[in-house]
């Protein structure tokens, strides 16, 4: 519905649209000796009260009290309202969106448009430390729930006019703001066009978190593995943008979405580039080894203990058999009991307040493990296997990929329980086939472990091992082909 020149009619329509919205402030006043009527609207507690008072109210009520009413709104916009962004709006939907978004809207009798002045001032918790991607050496700041601040945290790291930003809205009811950020000279045009199209076609009534957008943008939603990368670190987001990737900053969430993403990117941490390459290459190798153990260790224990004890050293096989002598459960039952107990401890540690969560995780694990062994429910070897599996999962720097590996672990346990060591290999082959079938916006999920010749095998320099920064002369496959050289333009 378009606004009309009748203020009473406009007010009635807005009141109907914002019925029972008790936090919306209505202020009507007269100017020009009572000849002109103005209506001001804003939502309480999410606006800058000082800006409204100094830049709008005082200007109108002191400077324009005896001013002619004709063309007043246009004059205010062009000459008097000292606020950074003021624009005309002409529809009822624009008025409601502006008011609920923290802006101040001015309507006047006799004008068929309104003024929307930016007066947002959302409550926030300030810039805090990263919690899920902690680093020893490197920046400590993390994203927060206000998108505008997250944009600033990213821009302060890339002071280049080629860093572009497009604003989108998602959710027919929530109307959540999404910032699409990319480097204009590095991003692939087809990637940018596809992301924009998907954002415009996002069909959901509410997008309350970046997790909503991630699930809607993923191509294979039934895969346990994430095809988009989420991060709470501005430095990691800036590094991804400089590789030609696209970053999505969703309002009301402290996480950015980076795309495309490959399996290799989930094993990279921001700290990898802040320390010496020899150390970080070794740590990366440890991460890949830990991922293998997190998936296969329980299954391998079942396979060796039940089906292939002859493959173990004799002394070890006898020791394992001796510890299992009085255990009432099968090896498979033991492993499942301990793995599920560890999952419960992990979830309990997440939900509890942070001062006690670490204590519960450590003490609870020790007590439960010791009690289970002393009670003869599980053997000490199973406790060691479950503990090592859990520790290996914590080595991987990305929570999303860890969740996928946790699910696959139970598939390996099931296959090992039925087919032994052949079941483990069959499960790994199924996993490899599934990973090979995944793509992320046209990039193979297993790149650069497959198809690396597309970029002259240069992406191996930042995969399992990382070369010195001086030797990393080309950007990865995400970048458009004409801009892959890492050098300043002349």
Structural class: alpha+beta
Largest sheet strand order: 1-2-4-5-3
Using the CA coordinates, give the radius of gyration: 29 Å
Shape descriptor reads: elongated
Report the sheet-strand fraction.
Answer: 5-15%
Distance between the termini: 53 Å
How would you state the average pLDDT, rounded? 85
Largest sheet: 5 strands, antiparallel
Low-confidence stretches: none
Give the topology string: H per helix, E per strand.
HEEHHEHEEHEEHHEHEEHHHHHHHEE
Strand segment tally? 12
Measured as a percent range, the helix fraction is 40-55%
| Helix run count | 15
Short overview:
This protein has 490 residues and is α+β, with helices and mostly antiparallel strands. The protein has helices at 7-17, 49-63, 72-80, 92-100, 147-155, 189-200, 210-217, 234-241, 277-307, 314-323, 331-351, 354-374, 380-395, 399-419, 421-437; strands at 24-31, 36-43, 86-89, 104-108, 114-117, 163-170, 176-183, 229-231, 246-250, 256-259, 439-440, 443-444. A hairpin with a 5-residue loop joins strand 9 and strand 10.
């Amino acid at each position: 519905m378009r606004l009309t020149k009748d203020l009473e009619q406009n007010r009635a329509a807005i009141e109907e649209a914002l019925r029972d919205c008790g936090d919306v402030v209505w202020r009507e006043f007269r100017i020009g000796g009572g000849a002109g009527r103005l209506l001001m609207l804003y939502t309480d507690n999410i606006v800058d009260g000082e800006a409204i008072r100094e830049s709008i109210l005082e200007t109108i009520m002191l400077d324009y009290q005896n001013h002619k009413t004709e063309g007043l709104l246009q004059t205010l916009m062009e000459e008097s309202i000292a606020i950074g962004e003021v624009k005309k709006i002409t529809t009822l939907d624009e008025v409601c969106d502006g008011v609920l978004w923290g802006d101040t809207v001015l309507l006047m009798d006799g004008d068929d448009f309104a003024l929307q002045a930016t007066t947002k001032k959302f409550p926030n918790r300030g810039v805090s430390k990263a919690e899920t991607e902690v680093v020893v050496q490197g920046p400590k700041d993390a994203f927060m729930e206000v998108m505008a601040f997250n944009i600033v945290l990213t821009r302060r790291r890339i002071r280049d006019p080629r860093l572009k930003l497009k604003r989108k809205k998602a959710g027919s009811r929530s109307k959540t703001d999404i910032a699409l950020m990319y480097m204009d000279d590095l991003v692939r045009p087809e990637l940018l066009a596809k992301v924009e199209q998907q954002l415009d076609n996002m069909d959901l009534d509410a997008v309350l978190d970046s997790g909503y957008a991630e699930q809607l943008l993923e191509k294979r939603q039934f895969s346990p593995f994430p095809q988009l990368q989420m991060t709470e670190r501005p430095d990691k987001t800036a590094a991804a943008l400089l590789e030609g990737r696209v970053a999505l900053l969703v309002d009301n969430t402290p996480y950015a979405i980076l795309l495309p993403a490959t399996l290799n990117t989930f094993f990279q941490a921001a700290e990898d580039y802040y320390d010496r390459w020899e150390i970080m290459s070794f740590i990366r190798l440890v991460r890949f080894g830990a991922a293998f153990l997190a998936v296969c260790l329980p299954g391998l224990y079942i396979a060796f203990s039940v089906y292939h004890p002859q493959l173990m050293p004799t002394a070890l096989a006898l020791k394992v058999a001796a510890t299992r002598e009085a255990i009432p459960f099968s090896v498979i039952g033991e492993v499942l009991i301990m793995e599920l107990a560890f999952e419960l401890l992990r979830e309990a540690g997440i939900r509890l307040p942070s001062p006690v969560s670490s204590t519960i995780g450590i003490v609870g694990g020790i007590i439960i493990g010791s009690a289970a062994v002393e009670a003869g429910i599980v053997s000490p070897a199973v406790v060691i296997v479950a503990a090592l599996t859990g520790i290996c999962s914590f080595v991987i720097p990305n929570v999303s990929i860890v969740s996928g590996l946790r699910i696959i672990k139970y598939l390996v346990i099931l296959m090992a329980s039925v087919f032994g060591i052949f079941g483990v290999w069959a499960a790994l082959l199924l996993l490899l086939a599934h990973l090979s079938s995944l793509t992320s916006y046209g990039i193979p999920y297993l790149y650069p472990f497959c198809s690396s010749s597309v970029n002259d095998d240069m992406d191996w320099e930042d995969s399992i091992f990382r070369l010195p920064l001086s030797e990393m002369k080309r950007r990865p496959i995400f970048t458009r082909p004409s801009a892959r050289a890492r050098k300043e333009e002349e």
